[in-house]
Write a structure and sequence with these properties.
Layout lengths: L8 H4 L2 H14 L3 H11 L7 H9 L3 H19 L2 E11 L25 H14 L3 E6 L8 H13 L9 E5 L5 H9 L5 E2 L7 H7 L8 H5 L1 H7 L5 E4 L7 H19 L5 E3 L20 H14 L4 E4 L5 H8 L5 E3 L30 H10 L3 E3 L3 H4 L4 H9 L4 H18 L3 H15 L5 H15 L8
Parallel strand pairs: 1-2, 1-8, 1-9, 2-3, 4-5, 5-6, 6-7, 7-8
The structure holds iron/sulfur cluster (2 copies).
Amino acid sequence: MYDVHSPKATEFIDHQEILDTLAYAAKNKDNKELVRSLIQRARDCKGLTHREAALLLECNDPELIEEMYQVAREIKQKFYGNRIVMFAPLYLSNYCINGCVYCPYHAKNKHIRRKKLTQDEIRQEVIALQDMGHKRLALETGEDPKNNPIEYVLESIKTIYSIKHKNGAIRRVNVNIAATTVENYRKLKEAGIGTYILFQETYNKESYEALHPTGPKSDYAYHTEAMDRAMEAGIDDVGCGVLFGLETYRYDFVGILMHAEHLEARFGVGPHTISVPRICPADDIDTADFTNAVPDEIFQKIIAVIRIAVPYTGMIISTRESVSCRKKVLDLGISQISGGSRTSVGGYVEKESPEENSAQFDVSDTRSLDEVVNWLLELGYIPSFCTACYREGRTGDRFMSLVKSGQIANCCHPNALMTLKEYLEDYASEDTKKKGLALIERELKNIERDKTREICERNLKEIESGKRDFRF
Ligand code: SF4
Ligand code: SF4
């Protein structure tokens, strides 16, 4: 029985409720009046229910789709402006005891090179990332209690935060590790993580069990209830995601919105971010084996409707996606992208040959961080290296209330300009620097409050003379 407040996975992600939602969407998709009324209502930025969002996703009328895109753009502009937050993944270890059939790190893959970084190797990787200009990382490990116990993850986080190389610093470490206990989530919280990220992969229990035949991850309930345990442990910024292409996109789209509604209902805070990866090729993984591949047009629509349904939730896209796809979805709702990513263990220091590929997935956007920053500037976006909120204690419901009132932009905008300025001073190519400085000049005028603008201008000068780490 569907119950948004229930702590039980099969009740807050009720299979029958998803089927009923999809039937409702299929039945009403040609009801233009109803669809248009929902699009109109979405303009108030209060979001939509999973049922309403499913109906928008199902609607195929080109005119209405364009209207949805328009509202998604308006919401994106209102809450996130033209800022795009930058991050990079850092793979610590690809030892894994699970059997996920879509991931090359699955335990039975005997020809992939297994590697776990030592603390010294982590130092080297972090220095390489700092030298690119990154300030925000997402840690990734496989699940293996012997090789990657929680103590290893905690020690690695400590190492990462401790490295100060030239003007570099990693200021926010988000963590993407397997579902774990409340006690371990508490330890992660104490270690000062930013967001705890865990992808559901698919919300369909039957498919989930078939895709995860062995290992602890095969327990659907334990995995699906992980965010509840993380929140019970005090981690109030959690990042959800599904791997589009494993199940039908319709099912997982409804599932992820129900998960967001559940977290909001039970803990008063929805997910901090939603990631939208699509299945892509990798060692030992042939995408032809997956028949639910999501075409680009549908992918764009998914992003736009998620933007409309949960306006306050950041949306993340990785380098799995091509440059052209990333460009299309930026204004439809994406607020964070990775740049210059390596998806193999040790990949920032050591460049692998294709034969010894140990990447978790093939990167489609292979540009350097500087190239990505330059490209964003050309498109009129502000690449932001901001990590201020979590460091200022703006997390969970405190963060959400600032977002909902629109006040967060008073911090995001100047912080984006100041962190971009740091990047331009320390890491950018000449051309990027020129474009970036011109953009900062233009964007300063868009800071509405005089006082904030003055402080920002003063800090920008201080950055020029060598000072770092200003924030609102
Ligand atoms: Fe292991 Fe994660 Fe890959 Fe599954 S998806 S095999 S848990 S690394
Ligand atoms: Fe993100 Fe907060 Fe920085 Fe805005 S001010 S970009 S919400 S960390």
